[in-house]
Write a structure and sequence with these properties.
- The model has no long low-confidence stretch (mean pLDDT 85).
- The longest helix is centred in the N-terminal third of the chain and has 18 residues, at 8-25.
- The chain is mainly alpha-helical.
- It is elongated and about 50 Å long.
- It contains 5 helices and no strands.
- Helix 1 (8-25) runs antiparallel to helix 3 (49-57).
């Protein structure tokens, strides 16, 4: 993802999943209250499922790639392995960072 390997199909799949979540987030009093609180805290506005769907539909693969290039940085990733390390295969860039 960080190297730009995001396909249009993956973006569309994520978009559909997020839109389904928005739809479910607007059904029922508890879900709607939680969606309103989250939207207000994140963006300072009321939750409007139509607006959020329009915003999601406008996201392009290029925007996802640009964001991923800034956020997904293998040079900053670290990890830990619990148990025998013999069967664990990691990319060389990560192997030296595993404790």
């Amino acid at each position: 993802v960080g190297a730009g390997g995001v396909t249009e199909g993956e973006v569309e799949l994520a978009r559909r999943a997020l839109i389904a979540g928005v739809t479910l987030g607007s059904e029922g009093a508890d879900a709607l209250m939680e969606a309103n609180a989250g939207e207000f805290l994140a963006r300072g506005r009321r939750f409007d499922p139509r607006r959020v769907r329009r915003e999601l539909e406008a996201v392009t693969r290029e925007q996802v790639r640009a964001l991923a290039a800034r956020v997904v940085r293998l040079d900053l990733v670290a990890g830990a392995v619990c148990g025998p390390r013999a069967g664990v295969r990691l990319p060389a860039t990560l192997a030296q960072r595993v404790a």
